[in-house]
Amino acid sequence: MRASLIQIGVDQDEPVEARRARAASLVREQAAADLVVLPELWTVGAFAFDSFTAAAEPVRGPGARTAEAMSEAAREARVWLHAGSVVERATGESGEAVYYNTALVFSPDGELAATYRKIHRFGFDRGEATLMSAGAEPVAVPLPDTTLGLATCYDLRFPELFRALTDAGAQTLVVSAGWPERRAAHWSLLVRARAVENQAYVLACGTAGAHAGVPQAGRSVIVDPWGETLAEAEDAEEQVVAADLDPAYVAKVRADFPVLRDRVLR
After folding, report:
1. b/e string for 171-202 if b means 16 or more Cβ within 10 A?
2. Tell me: the pLDDT tens digits for 99-144?
3. Distance (Å, whole) CA 91 – CA 72
4. Boundaries of each CN hydrolase domain copy (predicted)?
5. What global pTM score does this model have?
6. Which of 36, 115, 217, 227 is an S-S bond match for 196, by CB 3.0 to 4.6 Å?
């Protein structure tokens, strides 16, 4: 199973429509892959808080511009596509607009196979934490060769989410992110930790460039269930990180070193 992570560059001077078209083109170039992953909020920038409301869009129906472009790209490339996340505009119980940081997964037929609303919002008392609503449920997505567990950026700091995804059958954990350069060491450490403690592949895709003046870490990386790095971005520039995954290796690691069997607290 071939996985490709597209560490796309985000430049606020580039029109969003141009970046959508460019991202779709980059996805089509990965037609030899089985699974392609894009980073978090690549249309607007994860730290461009002031632009969130204006950039918001539905994930289905009229106005779902990013979903439409990514659906077409997945269908043309014939790949499973984790299209990163968008600022989703939804309707609340009282008819008011509510916003989520929502990841989109498309099948090779271009169907929207799953969405995941980010559970852990970053910013403490500002930014995403005050502008976005929180998702409620972990999401695992069955693919023909593996099951994906979905997480977004700040989620990486909460191991209980990843354990819930493992309990739901996930063998490959996908983290799309807009992770800042100043905490790059935490990113590298936490990605490997999530792989080792869950004995799963971790595909962690970040962005290049800067979001609203915040330099990005890049460092997109693929880690195997034993914690070994299979491929990693050379720097924080736009690039593709790719590796071959062996779905059977997850079962082998879990059988040979059955840590998960010895859990006491559940």
Report:
1. bbbbbbbbbbeeebeebbebbbbbbbebbbbb
2. 999 999 999 999 999 999 999 999 999 999 999 999 999 999 999 9
3. 26
4. 1-247
5. 0.97
6. 227
